[in-house]
Automatic annotation (TrEMBL), chains A, B:
It comes from the Bacteria. GO terms for molecular function: DNA binding; DNA-binding transcription factor activity. InterPro entries: GAF-like_dom_sf, HTH_MetabolicPath_Reg, Tscrpt_reg_IclR_C, Tscrpt_reg_IclR_N, WH-like_DNA-bd_sf, WH_DNA-bd_sf. Keywords: Activator, DNA-binding, Glycerol metabolism, Transcription, Transcription regulation. Coiled coil: none annotated. Residues 62-245 form the IclR-ED domain. GO terms for biological process: glycerol metabolic process; negative regulation of DNA-templated transcription. Residues 2-61 form the HTH iclR-type domain. The lineage of its organism: Bacteria, Bacillati, Actinomycetota, Actinomycetes, Kitasatosporales. SMART domains: HTH_ICLR. This is Glycerol operon regulatory protein.
DNA sequence: AAGTCGTGTTGCATTCCTTGCAACAGTCAT
DNA sequence: ATGACTGTTGCAAGGAATGCAACACGACTT
């Protein structure tokens, strides 16, 4: 749309391949050296481009600063909320969104079930970290040593007969979750309540949040709930895509 | 230098603060909405800007991709080499550059001493990980659990009486190194050889490489070598700055 | 339902900004 | 010294970006 800007921005991917000098940039842009010079200067003033000691140009530090600032200002909850609502409208059950912070897993959003049931969860409240599906998803993504360090530090309360009993079992469960890309809690916290969950990933592939659908088995059986898994995963993936700023199909055209 | 590009690039830091709609962007740029629209469109085509579901604009995924590709294409050794040579010319001793990879620490560059001595090191060769100054620097930067996991897995050969004896001592040494920002190896590998080293950091502050100066004490005493510390640190910092694309003083003007 | 505000979007004429050229200034090798 | 190579600057001409005004669309209010 804007020729000048278009040309200037085309320099960035070019430099991402590696440092280049003025002539190379001008050639690959198909413009005169002086034109390339002025574009590079403008990019340089904004810190997007850095001139190294051999006079060649590379991408500059500002780019990293921008990228970092962008992720920090991103609010998963804001982006995820409409998706959670849509999911709730499709299946009717309680939908949770949670994040991992300081050795705790916290609910940061919740859409209530449309069935007349209550669940003991509250936004801002730490979840039962050893059994909840969202906790498993978030912790499964940690590097192995951190995962292990955390697992041995935790208490393993026996909420029910199906609660995770100890660190060994927990680590095994996390490995499974990491492998399959989704998690469940089948009566591990409250005997009659089941959950299925899936991870939300950031642009670097790391898990930044986790969502789950919960329902008491007086409403649906565990098997029926598990049938929702594809839908849950698709929702989580949609959130991931939007969160990481990728438009589903447009990106590569 | 180029008004159009200048305006377009000014949008990026603006969006880094958080999502904004067309009107806000136009206002803060001091241009007509239609102008802002066309600039945003161009940025969008290049993927630097992403349009979220509520029509507001944010920074896009391409920015992250570019930043990542840029760091991958960066070669520490290439950037560091002239600095290593300069350091060698100033002090005359052997200078090493090393990186951490797969639970090993490898020398990736070396400038030979100008004194007639030999050192048993070779580019590409794993270093004595429990005693070398460069190893301490690289491992000290790991997250605590990984550091501990690695420390207990290592063997602690007694090269000399001053070699690190066990994991406990090693972890204590790493904590000290992490704290002070530099490291030494005083006869821990070979009785008569001392080293001082300092870390090279990337744009995110993490240690990406480590450099050291080594000399046998038949040439200089440990104290004399330690007197070089400020020089070594300054060199490492210079490499860090150049590697992370920050121009020393210009950046904040 | 009509009306109104608030968005984002498009065509178009004017004008200013970008462009390529050619000449210049360095640096390095021959 | 001389040549070839880089990066750099002034200038005129043309084209591209700009702001305007009008339009389209949806969300609210009345």
């Amino acid at each position: 749309m804007s020729q000048t800007v278009d040309r200037a921005l085309s320099i960035l991917p070019l430099l991402a391949e590696g440092p280049a000098d003025l002539g190379q940039v001008a050639d690959r842009l198909g413009v005169h050296k002086s034109t390339a010079l002025r574009l590079l200067r403008t990019l340089h003033e904004h810190g997007l481009v850095h001139r190294q000691s051999d006079q060649r140009y590379r991408l500059g530090a500002r780019l990293f600063a921008l990228a970092q600032q962008a992720v920090e200002s991103l609010d998963v909850r804001e982006i995820a909320h409409p998706h959670l609502v849509a999911l709730n409208e499709k299946c009717g059950h309680t939908v949770h969104l949670a994040v991992h912070e300081e050795n705790e897993v916290l609910y940061i959003d919740k859409v209530e079930s449309r069935y007349p049931v209550r669940m003991y969860s509250r936004i801002g409240k730490p979840v039962a970290i050893t059994v909840a599906a969202v906790a498993k998803l978030l912790l499964a993504d940690l590097p192995e040593p951190e995962r292990r360090a955390l697992a041995v530090k935790l208490d393993y309360p026996r909420y029910t007969a199906r609660s995770t009993p100890d660190a060994t079992a927990f680590l095994a469960e996390l490995a499974k979750v990491r492998e399959q890309g989704w998690a469940t809690d089948l009566g591990g916290h409250e005997e009659s309540i089941n959950c299925v969950g899936a991870p939300v990933r950031g642009v670097d592939g790391r898990v930044v949040a986790a969502m789950s659908v919960s329902a008491p088995n007086v409403v649906v059986t565990a098997d029926e709930l598990l049938a929702l898994l594809p839908l849950v995963r698709r929702t989580a993936d949609a959130i991931s895509r939007e969160y990481s700023g990728q438009t589903p199909a447009k990106e590569t055209e």
